[in-house]
Amino acid sequence: MAYAQPAAALAGKWTYRSFLNDPTLIGDDPNTAPANLYALLFAEAVFTFEIPNDTTLTGAIDWTGGGLDLKGKIRENDGGPIVEIVGTGRPNTGTANWEYDYHGQLAYQWPNGVNQVPAIVGNVIRAKPHNGNPAGVVASFIAVKQP
After folding, report:
1. pTM above 0.85, yes or no
2. Does the N terminus or the C terminus of the chain have fewer Cβ atoms within 10 A?
3. Helices vs. strands in the chain: H and E counts, helices first
4. Which residues touch 111 (CB under 8 Å, ≥6 apart)?
5. Nearest residue to 100 via CA among 25, 45, 35, 51
6. 3-class DSSP state for residue 139?
7. Confidence class of residue 4 from pLDDT cuts 50, 70 and 90?
8. How far is CA 44 from its chain centroid?
9. CB neighbours (10 Å) of residue 99?
């Protein structure tokens, strides 16, 4: 069931959430599960992508109190665009010298899906240490297209 969407489908704003890759089950106790689930949240932000051509991505990831500038490459495959993005900190801000690398793919668009919202799924790695946090930490992410 291959399908193809053009790279231009990536343009716009995406709600981004990344999660630590902890395999521990959270459980279904409503009194504890939300707190446990929140503990897995690595980051919440907004991706803003511009697609100047079919192979290039620029933009930003912004959250309350900070953000990174983004530059990336887009590769096409049968399942949709794949993005390889480098996020770099902004000079003279709290993110100066930060670097995160993102790898994601546009999720499969189901032919019979009901109200399916485009999503990018992938993972992110802290490429450079910062604020006492080591490089090499990996988290999974999902980014959901905003209207």
Report:
1. yes
2. C
3. 1, 8
4. 1
5. 45
6. strand
7. low
8. 9
9. 17
